[in-house]
Structure prediction request, 59 residues.
Amino acid sequence: MKSEIQNKAEKKRNQRNQKAHEKTVARSDAKRYITQLANVKDLQEVQRWLDNRMSELKD
Prediction:
């Protein structure tokens, strides 16, 4: 369990680095979804998203 001081420090750090924090949380959530929750149909949909995004970035 975190102390009050640790919670305040984490909140302050997150406010300073909000974009980086949002990216880290999204990445963690995506990894958990892919590795623990998704079935084959879900993974096929994720693969389509990835393929589309890769195409966008290449153009």
Remarks:
- DSSP finds three helices and no strands in the chain.
